[in-house]
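This part of the workshop introduces the protein records we will be handling. Getting from the letters to the tokens is the skill we practise here. The record below serves as our worked example for the rest of this section.

…
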Amino acid sequence: MHIQVQINEEGALRNQRYAFTDRFTLVSELLQNARRAGATCIEINYHPAVQVLCVNDNGCGIDDFQKLLSFHESGWDTATGTSEHPFGIGFSKCLYAASRCVIASGNQRVDIDTAAALARASFNVVQTEADDAVIGTQVELHGVDLPDLASRIETLCLGFPIPVLFNGDPLQRRLAEDHLEMTDSPMGKVYLTGTHDGLHNHHTVVFLQGFCVMKPIHIAVDQVNVVHLDSTQFMARLPDRDKLIDEDVQRKRIDAELKADWRRVLETAKVRIAPERFADMFYAAMRSWGHLDLLNDLDVLPCELCSLISAYPIQCHSGAIDYVQRLEVPIKRQDVESGLVTLVILDWLNEENTARWMLAQAQSHVLIDSFGLDAGHWAQRHLRLLEDEPLDVQVVAEQHRTQMEGRWIWPTVVLCEAIKIQVGDECVVITDDGLFHEDCLYIPRGEHSGEAVRQASDFMNEYEQFMESDLEADRENLADLIRHLRSVDPVQTLYSMLQELRLGKYPLLHGKCFQLTVGTGTAPGHSLELID
């Protein structure tokens, strides 16, 4: 007994209507046919009230109408077959989507009842008068339900290479080859966003034969890379042709080609523009696309890599780090190698490294993101890892020590004249800001605000909620405790209270001398007199 592959033609015709997953494949197939026919303009008209779709093109037309009803036979010339791999089903979708198809080309016209056609009926192709000759091809489909076509057609033709009019209005085709500054690539034509200003993006829209086969979830048309694939190298899957064959493999190839294209752009820009401008403009693109080695021979560091501690460093919840500011002027190599600028690496502030942050702030050291440099970069030899250097914290002239009973934190509070911090061979003395170190809040003479509680905790609970009320309560608690502990000396007590008032903000008080008298008893008042 011998067996062989056989085809149930009636079953194949009946079931193919379920092969197409997108109703708009009907439109894309007609556009594809017009493009392959050499059309330079396509007109689409759709009337949802009567469900009639008309597609007219000025291509070479149809010489053999039998090709319309021949499934899986391309009908295209050898060159088109070699370059585009047509599957021969370009018109079949019409038979399943419409109740009636009227096609005219040149002096020929045919009117097809689709139900009869799928039942294998034959149709007469009639000859028309010479005055009625159609240039190109006209397709008129009846009973076509495309209620969203008006809102979808612009996206459908976003990268289509031929001008398209829909209901009389031209579509923008913003990602078509003739609308973008495309460059040649081994995989086709490529447009890279950000090549002029450095505002790069990894979001990429990929087209094959004018239709999208790969895209991000959300498209910002003016901020995407665009690839028009070479159809001799890539094929899309049947029947909708909206996905590449072996998409996972092809995606890796496309990503690799985009990376190589960016390399060429960056190498050209590096020669054309000044090093400072190149590093500042294209650093993010170099880092994102894996070309950090292009910085290795430049004598400047990108501003994006470097920052200063511009305010009191605190623990804080994500997104609220405002005490570190990026540099506005790039650092030069000679300043680093001469020691004028010290580059340091620090982990984000936590209860273990507050003293190291305070030293870096006091010394105006520059924080640098070492992961943003290539391993062979010259700056790697000049980086100080403060976390790895020995740390010593000493209290200068301790005055009081007590336990703070806060709402969120319970540290030991130490009042002192100053705090001495030594990291490695470097030493600073802090007199104006508090320091949290090893479960103690060290409060030097110039600190009175209670802000030091923010070095002890970020006030985030286990549900990642910011406990703002607890922060305010503990900050006031510490400020009150500081005032209380300093109250052993009348002058120091009053001085501490006046510090909070910031009297220097009021010009009317400048240079004035006052006499203050505080009463006695359980609820004493006070009197104030201006002295000439």
